[in-house]
Amino acid sequence: MSQKKYRDESGLFIAEGTKLVLDLARSFHVHYLLATADWAEESGKTLKAEIRVISKEDLNKISNQKTPQGVLAVFEKPDYILSESDISTRLSLALDDVQDPGNLGTIIRIADWFGIRDIICSEHCADAFGTKTVQATMGALARVRVHYVNLENFLQSISKKIPVYGTFMNGNDIYSETLSQQGIVLMGNEGNGISEKMEKLVTKRLLIPNFPKGEPTSESLNVSVATALVCAEFRRRG
């Protein structure tokens, strides 16, 4: 299940570490769980799932972590329904081909922090249930629904109901622009930003300004950092 095709075929994904496993176990069905005897005694009592006890040496062999925390769990992937009527009543994120698993995991965690419950991903985004992404969410995956869709078709439809925001170098200053608490915030690919076909569907263009204005600065922001700044400003207005 370290490869996406096997995760898709089986409908399962892996998570490791005490906090992550305990958080996810509250929301996802545990298919099976492997743990050391110490972990089972100290942390496993709160779980309803059956624990298969294995040696620390065996866990080290199958773990994806450099320093395993004593537990590896296999969960069933959720089957979410994406409802446009529900999405149109709140603030959500959309991701245009975000490739890095760490960035995606951090964005899921950011969404969780700011009470954003849905992230709509293009079909070529990183896999939310890949090992690196799952670990980077720090448990936020239990509270944020991640959907994979034909993003162009989705935005064409939803833009008739609510605004679609996107960040650009020639957008309007986010700190002075009118913002709605019902809308889609579209974030782009790490290297190319928002693609041309998605850009055409953005109804409100935003700029995250650098300071001081007119001074030399970095060329761009990391997509997860930019997402955090945008979400913070939307929520500050709310």
What does this structure look like?
- With 238 residues, this protein is an alpha/beta fold.
- The protein folds into two domains: 4-76, Ribosomal protein L30/S12 (60s Ribosomal Protein L30, Chain: A, 2-Layer Sandwich); 84-237, 3-Layer(aba) Sandwich (Alpha/beta knot).
- It contains ten helices and ten strands.
- The strands form two sheets. A six-stranded parallel beta sheet has the order 7-6-5-9-8-10.
- β2, α3 and β3 form a beta-alpha-beta unit.
- α6 runs parallel beside α7 (131-137) and α6 (101-113) packs parallel to α10.
- It is elongated, with a radius of gyration of 20 Å.
- The chain starts with a helix and ends with a helix.
- The model has no long low-confidence stretch (mean pLDDT 94).
Brief descriptors of the model:
single chain; 238 residues; alpha/beta; 60s Ribosomal Protein L30, Chain: A; Alpha/beta knot; 2 domains; 4-stranded mixed beta sheet; 10 helices; 23% strand
Helix percent band: 25-40%
Count of the separate structural domains: 2
Please identify the top-level CATH class of the largest domain. Answer: Alpha Beta
As a whole number of angstroms, the C-alpha radius of gyration is: 20 Å
* Physical arrangement of strands within the biggest beta sheet: 7-6-5-9-8-10
User: What is the number of E strands?
Assistant: 10
First-residue to last-residue Cα separation: 41 Å
- Named CATH topology of the largest domain: Alpha/beta knot
- pLDDT averaged over residues: 94
What global shape is seen?
Answer: elongated
In percent, how much strand structure appears in the residues?
15-25%
Relevant CATH superfamily of the largest domain: SPOUT methyltransferase, trefoil knot domain
Number of helices: 10
CATH architecture of the largest domain: 3-Layer(aba) Sandwich
Return the string of H and E elements.
Answer: HEHEHEHEHEHEHEHEEHEH
- The low-confidence runs, each spanning 5 or more residues with pLDDT under 50, are none
